[in-house]
Design goal:
The protein has helices at residues 7-22, 47-56, 71-84, 96-100, 117-126, 141-154, 168-178, 213-217, 243-260, 356-366, 374-393, 410-414; strands spanning 37-42, 61-67, 91-93, 107-110, 130-133, 158-160, 185-192, 267-273, 284-291, 294-299, 313-319, 323-326, 331-335, 338-340, 397-400, 405-406. It is an alpha/beta fold.
Length: 427
């Protein structure tokens, strides 16, 4: 992805790629109704539309429910489903709680704004349903803890929507790193370029009659309605998300946690700049993380390392024998000055994915956790939350990885969870 690529372009590109992962030539086959997984979708604009397309095209899936609190999104999604499955009997819902009451649904997908992810997933687990949830995993650290506890208590399956995880490139990067080809990795540099749009001035107004604005806000603080705070651009407000940083962290940090599983986080130090306009998620953010035996750096511009300037997003692993640079689809290994895109002597050791969505469906049937499972996703997501807390407080923070608390900083610990609005505290 180049620095000029927008998130809308990314969604179009990645959705097409992920659909390619999910559907192989000749895979569309007849499956007995008793062998189908009955799936319902919650949140049906943007990535939710992709969810619908992906799962509705899997032969082992029957889409039985659609839910969105915006009537226009709901009507559009039903039209989309009817084009794929003309005889669909899927029911539509404005309130996900009514959908979760159904005993005949096996799994749900969730593509709501970030601040709803955790409660919907936990309530789905409680209702006996498995979950394919969009990233980020949760709005806060404590929510991730609660999600994992509920998943284990109710013996559920969860897949985080890191669709790029299914691709061959990340599998091969992990094999190369874990083989020791570049030696012990001591430094990792991650980046994503691009600024948020300048939003505003705010045009506070009565919400559209087709939108349940109170429920859209849900557990978040109450705000007057303005279009900039809703739907796609909600991600640039800290009440709901964390900007460009939170939008892309999981996609590129994923390959790092998979390859080397950083542990023993000790220190987080973030700096950044507030944006112009009415949004308040950072315009840019740079973060230094200190783990046991590893320094990890996030920047909003490419780092000063060979090849990074050509990529709008990437990961650069520095080992004591060489380096590896990658993005979603490419990689470069440099050892003793020689640059290559693979080392053929290193064997293929990781089983390739059947497709990210198919992997979830297989897990629903086998009851074995999928690739981007909740326990893994929680560890990979947590540093993202901690970086934003350091940015919001404007200070470096010390972290106790065993207790999952900040050391001697009550203000920082208070930001590990945000109390829900009373009427929308559903768990």
């Amino acid at each position: 992805m180049t620095s000029q690529t927008t998130r809308r372009d990314f969604i179009k590109q990645s959705s097409a790629a992920a659909l390619g992962f999910a559907l192989f030539p000749g895979q569309k086959r007849n499956v007995a109704p008793s062998d189908r997984v009955r799936v319902a979708h919650i949140g049906l604009n943007g990535m939710g539309t992709n969810h619908l397309n992906w799962f509705a095209n899997l032969p082992e899936v029957e889409v039985v429910g659609l839910c969105d609190l915006d009537e226009t999104h709901l009507a559009k999604s039903l039209d989309t489903l009817r084009k794929i499955t003309p005889n669909t009997t899927a029911k539509t819902y404005a309130d996900f709680r009514h959908l979760l009451d159904r005993s005949d649904i096996d799994a749900i997908t969730c593509a709501t704004p970030d601040h709803w992810h955790a409660q919907i997933a936990i309530m789905a687990f409680q209702a006996g349903k498995d979950v394919y949830g969009e990233k980020p995993l949760s709005y806060s650290v404590r929510e991730g803890q609660k999600m994992l506890k509920a998943l284990n208590r109710y013996d559920r399956i969860f897949q985080l929507g890191t669709q790029i995880h299914a691709g061959d490139n990340y599998h091969r990067v992990v094999e190369l790193i874990q083989s020791g080809a570049i030696g012990k990795v001591h430094t990792v540099r991650l980046w994503k370029t691009g600024f948020p749009p300048v939003l505003g001035p705010a045009t506070y107004q009565t919400p559209p009659s087709t939108l349940n604005w109170d429920m859209w806000q849900g557990p978040a603080p109450v705000s007057l309605y303005t279009p900039e705070r809703c739907h796609f651009t909600y991600r640039y407000f800290l009440d709901y998300s964390g900007g460009v940083f939170q939008d892309f962290w999981c996609h590129i940090a994923d390959v790092v946690w998979w390859a080397i599983n950083p542990t023993g986080l000790k220190r987080i130090s973030a700096k950044g700049e507030a944006p112009e306009g009415i949004g308040d998620a950072p315009k840019w953010i740079d973060i230094d993380y200190e783990f046991d035996g590893l320094n990890l750096h996030w920047t909003s511009i490419p780092p000063n390392v060979p090849g990074a300037e050509k990529r709008g997003i990437g990961a650069y692993f520095e080992g004591d024998k060489g380096t590896l640079l990658c993005d979603y689809n490419t990689r470069e290994i440099t050892i003793n000055g020689v640059v290559m895109n693979d080392i053929t002597d290193i064997p293929i050791t990781l089983e390739r994915s059947p497709g990210h969505q198919q992997n979830f469906i297989n897990s629903v049937k086998s009851r074995k956790q999928p690739e981007s499972n909740l326990a893994y996703a929680r560890q990979m997501t947590m540093p993202m939350h901690l970086g934003l807390i350091s940015y919001r407080l404007g200070q470096p923070l010390e972290w106790n990885a065993r207790k999952e608390k900040f050391r001697h900083n009550a203000a920082a610990n208070a930001l590990l969870f945000r109390e829900y609005r009373k009427e929308w505290d559903l768990i």
